[in-house]
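User: Fold this; tokens only.

Assistant: Input:
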Amino acid sequence: MIGVDAHLPAVGNAALTEGALRKRFGQPPVWQPEVLAEKRFADRMPTNASVLIPIVMRDVPTVLLTQRTTHLSTHSGQIAFPGGKQDESDADLYVTALRETEEEVGLNRSQVEILGALPIYVTGTAFMVSPVVGLVQPGFSITPNAHEVDDVFEVPLAFLMNPANHRRHAMQWEGVQREWLSMPYRDADVERYIWGATAGMLRNLYRFLAA
């Protein structure tokens, strides 16, 4: 670890309410995403993909995340948003996010209110990911796909939108300087290590809400 961003202000709770989130996406500010592309480390053709950032509107809003299974070909074992590659039959990347979420965790698309999308995030594995943000009301049910998902859990949105919980990392790998963010979260007795593309997209959400 090379640093913690505790000097940056947290997004206040008033900005994380249902009404405030709808207003922010309905009337977006002038802002600048911080992380748009990772250094490429996979020799493959770029692939369009989409993920859903599901904000669960509990008394204390949370973000629903998944732990990927360890046998998947890309990003195995990592914490991620539900989502995946765009199919030819998908009308747009919003449909991709909703379809993939249904397939991965069983969250019905009718239970998601789409607010909008953040800028495309390009992973080191050449996925061009559109992060779609949606609201989910409590009372939903999920049925995780055991082939793709080991676990589904929630992290308070306020925790993720507080840079005091954002850690910066850097290392030399195969002669290239690589940098990434992490947002470790202790869930009871389980350490949830949120990093890489997931942390990068959350950081962009922070910049959007803090602008």
